[in-house]
Amino acid sequence: xxxxxxxxxxxxxxxxxxxxxxxxADDDERVSExxxxxxxxxxxxxxxxxxxxxxxxxELILADFFQQNKLSAMAxxxxxxxxPLWGISTCACSAG
Length: 96
Prior knowledge:
Largest sheet: none
Oligomer: single chain
Number of domains: 1
Helix content: 40-55%
Order of helices and strands: HHHHH
Shape: elongated
């Protein structure tokens, strides 16, 4: 990437991202607001509150990583790296 396109690549272990997400409290205001937003975006959500909270935490951590590193794009390994560590897949989350 650096040689061919002149892009910097910032590597981060998937487990570090998951650990950061795990450290967010379930009652953290940002987590609660995003979880509520996720639920309100669709007519019916048939997944558990725990899954929605985990998705919200993952999205927040990915968004923080994106902003802190001033990225213009981001990619992440989804399956099977995250699921065994966190119980959800990142491809089901929408970091934006």
